[in-house]
Amino acid sequence: MDVVESLRALIGAGAVLDAADTATRSAGVWRPDNLQAAALARPATTGEVAKVLRWCHANGVGVVTQGGLTGLVHGADAAPDQVIVSLERMRAIEDIDPRQRTATVQAGVTLQALQEAVEEHHLMFPLDLGARGTATLGGNAATNAGGNRVIRYGMMRDMVLGLEAVLADGTVVSSMNHLIKNNAGYDLKQMFIGSEGTLGVITRLVLRLREQPVTRNMAFVGVDNFDHVAGFLRHMDRALGGTLSAFEAMWGDFYRLVTSPPAKGKPPIGQDYPFYVLVESQGADSELDTQRFNNAMEAAYESGLVVDAAISQSETDCHHFWALRDDVEQTLHGGVPVIFDISLPIAEMDTYTTSLGPALAAAIGPHRLFIFGHLGDGNLHVIVQVQAQDYLRLRPLIEQQVYAPLAAFQGSVSAEHGIGLEKKPYLHISRSAVELGLMRSLKHALDPQGILNPGKVV
Amino acid sequence: MDVVESLRALIGAGAVLDAADTATRSAGVWRPDNLQAAALARPATTGEVAKVLRWCHANGVGVVTQGGLTGLVHGADAAPDQVIVSLERMRAIEDIDPRQRTATVQAGVTLQALQEAVEEHHLMFPLDLGARGTATLGGNAATNAGGNRVIRYGMMRDMVLGLEAVLADGTVVSSMNHLIKNNAGYDLKQMFIGSEGTLGVITRLVLRLREQPVTRNMAFVGVDNFDHVAGFLRHMDRALGGTLSAFEAMWGDFYRLVTSPPAKGKPPIGQDYPFYVLVESQGADSELDTQRFNNAMEAAYESGLVVDAAISQSETDCHHFWALRDDVEQTLHGGVPVIFDISLPIAEMDTYTTSLGPALAAAIGPHRLFIFGHLGDGNLHVIVQVQAQDYLRLRPLIEQQVYAPLAAFQGSVSAEHGIGLEKKPYLHISRSAVELGLMRSLKHALDPQGILNPGKVV
What we know:
The structure is a homodimer. Chain A is an alpha+beta fold. The first copy, chain A, has helices spanning 3-11, 19-22, 46-59, 111-119, 137-142, 150-153, 189-192, 226-239, 252-258, 286-302, 315-326, 346-364, 391-403, 427-430, 433-446, and strands at 16-18, 39-41, 63-66, 83-86, 93-97, 102-106, 123-124, 160-166, 172-175, 201-208, 210-211, 215-223, 244-251, 275-283, 308-311, 336-343, 368-374, 379-386. Chain A has a 7-stranded antiparallel β-sheet with strand order 15-12-14-13-17-18-16, with helices on both faces. Chain A has a 5-stranded antiparallel β-sheet with strand order 5-6-10-8-9. Chain A has a 4-stranded mixed β-sheet with strand order 1-2-4-3.
């Protein structure tokens, strides 16, 4: 049997690339290499996805599902003997229901396409992340994407009301629930969300939409110790009464990096504080929201939780504040960054981050360390910068120093990026042998031949 | 082998009731009958739960886990040859972490005990329902409980960060995650939440806490048609900018019932409107929140969305408003209520509820029909009152009329109460054959002998 010819017979000649054509495509927006696979199938419907899977299942061929290829953990890498299923032709926004506040989409729709489509109904799809223009909603669901506003709206898991998935053997599970409350039996969609394509291929989604906020208030503050950062989080969350939408912490070194040349960002406050926080509130009443935000900031200042603050006076200020937080590209200057995405209890963060620098110095010698993240969610991004020529040699040593201490307090080696291939060797730090065993039982129950995204996660 | 003696040898004589002692206990707070089982085990630790399950697994004995016995769907009924595992001795609140805003509890802790324990930290556990004093957190998790503030804080599923469960064979799965973001492999806890004790016995939980709101604004409004009810929901959700905490709709007949003798409630507004809504906002700044709430109400009135409104002037008013909504007991006067807990798209509600009365009249003759519910979540409680002597005969006919139309628009036969035994014959209305098959695959993977809560759900 020939893979390419067989699949072409099932879903059409134009819908299947052979190995040579597949190899002309980039492996992803951050990747220097190209795709490799026996074939790349581009089904246009759930039925076609099912046909491809049924054939692969019958012939024992591995299947790797691909969305926008913006993942960071090699979760969608394929091997030369496997078939890639790309959802690039399943880009229909099937329905937006402004009364029910739901959207029904095919899995290949990009995050940004949906964000823009719901705007005219004064609605918002609250997931947001840098790769919005390329990342697909199917990929967001398969990896349980996080992003900047998890503290208010949750992760992708919290926004998926229903989904349709194709199992390894081609069975279509249509579970397109539109209801916020539905306790009619097991909540099957939960299995597929965050399973990184190893339990099924997500083909369609029903997503929950929210009212579009119309006002925004922000501040960029300096804080003199970590206890005050944690205290400031609770203070603002309480004082803003349900409207806190982001709480992004930056350790001093990161702030100085993104507010000093060659970075273009100007420092909104002094550069000598140990910690900085960008705090954002979204609401609906410009005057009252501003008054409340300013009251909350004033109280924080008076109680000593913050020692310096710049408060946004315009949307331009807000964009400027976010641009500083998002200017992670600066870590590319003067070296190569090793990027981590961990989460840990807030009570452990100070000790962990204080110990990390010396531990890295002992293990790898000179380096630069940048820390920032979604503090309200317990999620820190740790970036260790080393010289390009040392990268491959030092990377495993750095991973060891960053991950190993997490085991003591049940920290996570992946807050939001997922496991893929990259973090699989470290999954045991965050999960017990029993948990890993149960994951394998689930995998075996749904995909006994192991054809879905072989070797990833478990 | 003797069940009672065997279990006593494992966890102690005082920890196991025999069949006769078990039969002296009530089957639940709403139930006229008593428990029946071969034995009732009261383990004090997860290890003891594991011992009991291991024994039952080895001997092919069915196990029914019981919490506070406040469920409404016969989800915890046991048979004479089965073993009840009661978590009544696992009532420790192990830890409240005010910085991480988490609580770690044993599964037998009541909802109210946790609500009260976190107050001193100015925190809130936002799940709330009438049975709070008896219902256990383990039961809340096993049934994915809902309640009054789902629109703001979600269901129990959204509040569980981690859990520990014992599998059918006695394996302890400890997945006590404390982190809001954790994508380290499959999110195993999701399987156990809402599975009604059929996949494992939940023994401990890590729960997410929220800041305690300090202000509350409410209104009780009259609305002249259903479109305006739906429009008022969107208007208030948007205008309150993240602080809407309840949106409870009442059809006219229910309002008149709870505001007319023998009910003690006084009508806050006229009794002739077709629809009523109780709307609540919780915040943090008394003056600004009141101003915003009143602005939002004024705009609603001016645009014609509401035609009459009573706005709370005090906490006493708030209690009075809620007391009307909660006075479901009035449906016990003059007949016997058949209580439903459905959910359906908002766009279908008007047609569904308008058709239901005539359909019931044709099927069962004279009856009374009361409708109210958590409209913001798509969840309606439908109560059909019939005469006591007709109850048993009419009940299946009523179920048919209430459930059958839901199939056309993917409504749910259970928004929040679960399936248990009561709704199992109707589960197919809300779930396809493929979904039911996948549920059975999961059940088989985790409990191949079928000893956990036999016959429930799937």
